[in-house]
Every structure is written in structure tokens, then in C-alpha cells.
Amino acid sequence: MLELFCSRLDVLHSHQASTLQELQMARQEVGKVQEMLTASSREQREEEEEEAESSEKKTRSAEQQPAACSESGGPLEGAAARLEGLKESLYQKEREITELLEAQRSPAPPVPQPPCSVLLKGVIHKAHAVCSAAAETRALLDRMSEENRAALVQARDELDRLQTAHEEPGNQTAGRERVDEYESALSLLEETVRGFEVSQLALDCIKTGESPEINDCDAVSELEDILGRGTIPTADGVKSVGQQLLLLQDQLKQVKDEKKKIVENYTSERTMRKKYYNMVEDMKGKIRVFCRIRPLSRSEAAQGGAVAVEKIDDYSVAVETPRGPREFQFDKVFVAEASQEQLFQDTNRLIQSAIDGYNVCIFAYGQTGSGKTFTMVGDKEQKNPGIMPRSFNAIFDIIRDSSSKFLFKVSAYMLELYNDRLQDLLAPPAADAMALPGAARRVEIKRNRKGVVFAQGAETKEASSAQELYALFQQAGANRHISATKMNVESSRSHLIVCIMVESRNLTNGSVSTGKLSLVDLAGSERAAKTGAKDHQLKEANSINKSLSALGDVISALSAELPHVPYRNSKLTQVMQDSLGGNAKTLMIVNISPSECNLEETLTSLVYATRVKAITNHAQRHVESKEIAQLKEVILRLRSGQTVEEEDF
Ligand SMILES: Nc1ncnc2c1ncn2[C@@H]1O[C@H](COP(=O)(O)OP(=O)(O)OP(=O)(O)O)[C@@H](O)[C@H]1O
């Protein structure tokens, strides 16, 4: 196109030069003719002057004049005509020159293009787009393949570890329940490994082009070859590129679909991997930790409402810190929209364990106002009951379902730890206590020979239904220390400890199991400046912070596997001794605020919760044979001064 225009310009230039030359020549000729005309008119004037002097001469001259005129009139007339012709040619040339100049100035008229070159441009453009998309897809495949391979290696390692553990002699003889747990974890892990292997195979096929659907990677390189040569000279070339382009577009679509599927598979595999990992960790006795993000409060919304916490998947949460996002992994993450029911569904299993004779502890941890009481107790009107009232119902539901095989006895004590003093929330009021001998005893934390913690001297009451248990709980709640702080209108100023003991006697073999379910609503860590605490509230806050700091020290020592764990530094850590690093199945719920304004406290809570996740407990079922249970009963009777008959043995 450019060449065409240049050659046309050259033609115009040479035409213009020759026209200018002709114009110059014409001008010279016009000059000459004008000179001739001037000379002849001068001669005529001289002759007329001479004629006036001599009439003879004049007559002769007059006679001669027409002849002369006829002689000189001929060239003049010819010269005039030539002049006219030249002028005409001059104007013509000038017009041509003007046209040429205008043509030079104005843009070149569109040159009709062959349809093939129009198509070519589009084809090249599209081909480049396809090639770059193909390159991008290849890079993505490489990345995914690498990640999948790493996950596969990890899953295989986990499987090997579990298989080795399974083959250990001690585990071979473990109880049926334990063996079942191992076997189901094994089969789940095997499935995971298989899933990763399949993904790896698919990724490798896609990468090497071995898959029958997409083995036309040659088409890509062929097209790249053609483009690399720079030109596609013929219409056939264009047609073949077009065909390959269509082919590549199809393949690109296929690859994109495949990629989407792989990404989906990969994400679900990743989630499954975390789930199985958590299951294995749970089986190893690791404390389970749930993270619950409460909704943004009104006061937080009023401060701008910036959210710094985000759930990534069911097992991960990310916090936006000034130094970039920080990710934490937990056994489950619950967002603001998660209902109390959803949270309890994941907790239910532990209630069954307590009934089966395990020592179970569920506790909520977090800064003040982060939702611990909401999680453990529920809202004030009990429209959204929390874990405690739901557990009461669940215990008696399970009891009802198993009543034909077991005989159950449920009892409970409820305490609060206020200003580092244990207070019995079920103890009769002070006035009644004076009247009752032995009442208002000092409550002390003790551990039995199996390491299970119990509150000596605490009022333990039996309950035969969920309603009775709830009534006891309400009675305890009425005695609790709650007051308004800047951070929470109903802030718990003490740690609440609800202990439910479930004794079940097997009606078939007479064995007795004793489980304990401890439900703990910790007071929130707080900063006096933020809560506006003064006087006695400041004392409360200091006491709360001191006990939580002691709890933090125990958590740090346990997670670092230090030889000494400072349980004795606080009553709170003594109460929780069997739940942290002891023989309990423990679940911690770390409650956090989503708001940016609580970022520091949220990070501290999450770091503590992560440490708790590393602690291993050694849960054991507390079950005694019929004979031992009978002997214990006899001892009790003898101690209380009753007589024992031989048939009691
Ligand atoms: N998941 C939730 N959904 C709805 N409201 C919630 C949730 N979590 C907490 N809240 C509300 O947030 C407020 C503070 O919660 P809560 O009293 O449970 O905090 P807390 O951690 O127990 O505080 P403190 O340590 O001061 O006792 C309450 O009004 C509660 O109803």
C-alpha cells in the first residue's frame, strides 16, 4: 500500500517537473512573440511620421504600406494566434500543476485491497491471541501440576505414616472402635491419594498432549512456525491458518474447560486434604480448634466498619495486617452468618464421647465482646441457644435412645472463677447456708488417680431431664458476675465452668463408665483503656487478664513441649489441667471480631489458638468392670457407716 502510494507520488513529481519545464518554455516563447509585436508596432509608428513629410512618398508609402502591411500583417496575425495558443497551453499547465499540488497535499485515495490481505490481518491478530493464551495455559498447567505433585507426596507420606502406625503392635490390639477409626481414616487417605494421582495423570496428559482430545499441540507449533516466517504468501496459506485457528480455538475452549474442572477438583481436593489432615490430627489426640467470626457490631460499623478478617475456606481464615495478609488454619471456620445449630452440629460428636465415658472439654476463648457467651450460652432471650443448653438437650436425647441398654445418672456442678476465687453457683444462698450443716464449703480443685479434675466441696446436683439441667443452669446464671463495659453491655466478669458428669451402667455386662463434660465460657481478655474499666472493674479486669496470661503460659509450654507446664500458677489453669495436655477430648472455639479496629486482639487470639492446635491430649475412656464398680460401691457404703452383706459381692 505504501509502496503503491510512493510510486504514484514519484509519477506525479516527474509529471510536475516536465509540466514546469514546458511552462517555462511557453513563457519564453510568449516573451519572444511579444518582443516581435513591440518591434513591428515601433516600425509602423516611424513610417507614419515619414509619410507626413512627403505625400508622394506618402502615396507610395500608402501604396506600399498595404503590401508591407500584408507582408508584416501575416507574421503578426500568426504571432497573435500563437500567443493565444501558448497562453491557453500555459493556463492548462498551470491548472495541471495546481491539481498535482492538491493531489500531493490531500490523502491518497483508498486503494482497493484484495480480500485475502484483509483476512490475513485478522487471522494474524487472532493467531497471536491464541498463541499467548496457549502459553498462559501451559504456565498454569505447570503450576497446578507442581502443586498437585507436592500435595500427592504429602498425602502419600501421611498414608505411609498412618499405615505404619496401624501396623504397630499396640495399635493392632486396640479396641474395636479405635481400629474402626484407623481403618476409615486409612480408606479416606487412600481415596485422597488416588484422587491426587488421577489429577496428576490428567495434568501430565494435558501438558504432553497425550490426551486424545487435545493431542493436536502440533497445530500450535505449526501455526507458530508459519507466523515465525513472517508472511503468509498465498490465499491457501491464509485458509490453512484460518482452519488451524478454528482448531486452536476449539482446543483452547477444551483446555479452558479442562482447566476449570482441574481447578475445581484441586480446590475440593485441597479442602478434603485439610479435612483428613484434621481427622488424623484429631485421632492423634490433638486439641481441636474452631474459629468463629462474629458479625460486625454496631459500634464497629460506626467506626467505619472496615473488615480485616476473611474466611478463605472451611478450614482457613485470613487477616489483613499492615504487613500483608496472614493466614491461619483451624479444624473449622464459622463466619458471621453461621447459625448456632451449624456450630453445634460439629460439636455433637463430643457429647456422645462424654456419655461413652470420656472426659470432654469445650471452651470459648477470645477478647471481650467477641462472642464467647453467645457461642456457649446463647442470646439473653434464648432465641439462639448456645452450646450449653443444646448440650443439655443432646445428653438427654442420647440417654433416651440408649435407655434399653444402659442406666444413666446425670449430675452437675457449676462454678465461676471471679477475682481468682472459685465460687459455687449452685450453693444455697448465704442465709440458708448458715442453717445447713456442712453447706457453703470451700471449693477446691483436685485430680483423681486417673488425672480427671474435679471440684471438691462444690454442690453437685442430679438432673433427670434436660429441663432440670437447664433449671440448674439458670439458677447458676442468676448468681454470676456480669456488668456493662464500654466493649460489651453484658460483659462476663468471671470464667464460667459448667461440669456435667454422666455415669452409665451397661445393663448387659454391668460395666460402668463415667464421662465428664466441661463447658467453659472464659471471661474476655481486655485492655483497660478500651473497656473504660475503673475501680473494682479494673480489679476484675486485672484478675481476668492474669488468669488468661497464666492460661497462655500453659498453652505455650504445652505447644513447645517443655518439660514443665505451669498449671499451678492460676486456679483457671488448675481447673483446665485435664483439658489442656491431659486426658480430655478438648475443643476450643476461638471467637474473633471481624473489625479492623480489633485487629491486634484478633491476631493475638488467633496466634494462641494456633498454639492450642499443636497440643496433644491423651484421651481415655473411663470404664470399670462390674466387679470394680461393685467394690467401689461397697467402699462408699462402708465409709458412710452402712453395713455390707456378703451377697453384695
Ligand atoms: N455469632 C453472633 N451472631 C450474632 N450476634 C453475636 C454473635 N456473637 C456475638 N454476638 C453479639 O455480640 C455481643 C457480644 O457478645 P458476647 O457477650 O457473647 O461476647 P463475649 O466474648 O462473651 O464478651 P465478654 O468477654 O465481655 O463477656 C452480644 O450482643 C452478642 O449477642
UniProtKB/TrEMBL annotation:
Family: Belongs to the TRAFAC class myosin-kinesin ATPase superfamily. Kinesin family.
PANTHER family the record matches: KINESIN-LIKE PROTEIN, KINESIN-LIKE PROTEIN KLP-3
GO terms for biological process, alphabetical: microtubule-based movement
Domain of life: Eukaryota
Organism per entry: Perca fluviatilis
Pfam family, one: Kinesin
SMART domains xref list: KISc (SM00129)
Localization, UniProt: Cytoplasm, Cytoskeleton
Renumbered residue ranges of the record's region Disordered: 37-76
This protein's name: Kinesin-like protein
A molecular function GO annotation: microtubule motor activity
